[in-house]
Write a structure and sequence with these properties.
This protein is α/β, with parallel strands linked by helices. It contains 7 helices and 10 strands. Helix 6 links the parallel strand 7 and strand 8. The chain starts with 5 loop residues before the first strand and ends in a 6-residue tail after the last strand.
């Protein structure tokens, strides 16, 4: 039987000293798409930070792409992040480098050495997100939607089995949000699992997927028709 790509059992999620989510149970299988919803401060970002190693999992059990989150050591975090892609609301691109150089920086940081292989890989992911022709531009020369496309390309560099997306449409207008969502949907259809925190209920209704809600310190699945 195939192991889930993400599994948490009775996991307590902390933000500093504060318990924000209690006894969390999540199972995400290969290629699955799941939304994470809830009000600001309900624990969505803290949960995602725990999954990509920014916060330590102190109670319960958890595995993600083969890593044990309770036993995760600091020196293992870069290896974990080679197996997952992370997309942020505020893009987190380096403004003093071109799009190409932003992606090159990530490849070098994750152990790539071959210059030609890196060029080929960067070209491929930029083409996938429709940004190949703008590889020479700096992020501040791009629209918000274009910057988020570059951020998604960055998340795809190491062929991740799972993408964690924290409010990826939060800073975008409705039309651009739809374009980014269509792109994420295409990536999901190609076999990549996605866990996406969002406030955008219009997108949830349009692109129906499994939906988990953070509320009152708990995480639970909600029926799609109820999410309005």
């Amino acid at each position: 039987m195939e192991q889930p790509i993400l599994h948490l059992a009775a996991a307590d999620i902390y933000q500093r000293e504060d318990l924000v989510l209690s006894k969390v149970d999540i199972t995400l299988k290969k290629g699955e798409f799941c939304y994470l919803i809830g009000k600001t401060g309900s624990g969505k970002s803290s949960l995602l930070k725990t999954l990509y190693g920014d916060l330590h999992l102190q109670e319960g059990s958890g595995t993600i792409v083969g890593f044990d989150l309770t036993a995760l050591k600091e020196q293992q975090i870069p290896f974990l992040r080679r197996k997952i892609g992370v997309v942020f609301q505020d893009f987190k691109l380096l403004n003093d480098r071109t799009v190409f150089e932003n992606l090159l920086f990530v490849l070098k940081a994750t152990g790539w050495k071959d210059s030609e292989a890196m060029r080929v890989k960067i070209t491929a992911v930029l083409e996938k997100v429709g940004m190949k022709e703008k590889h020479y531009k700096n992020p501040f020369e791009l629209s918000g939607g274009e910057q988020q496309r570059v951020a998604i390309a960055r998340a795809l560099l190491n062929d991740p089995a799972l993408i964690l997306a924290d409010e990826p449409t939060g800073n975008l207008d409705p039309k651009t949000s739809l374009e980014v969502m269509n792109l994420l949907n295409e990536i999901h259809k190609s076999g990549t699992a996605i866990l996406m925190a969002t406030h955008d209920y219009a997108l949830i209704v349009k692109f129906k997927q499994k939906t988990l809600k953070c509320e009152g310190g708990n995480l639970f699945e909600v029926v799609q028709q109820v999410v309005v």
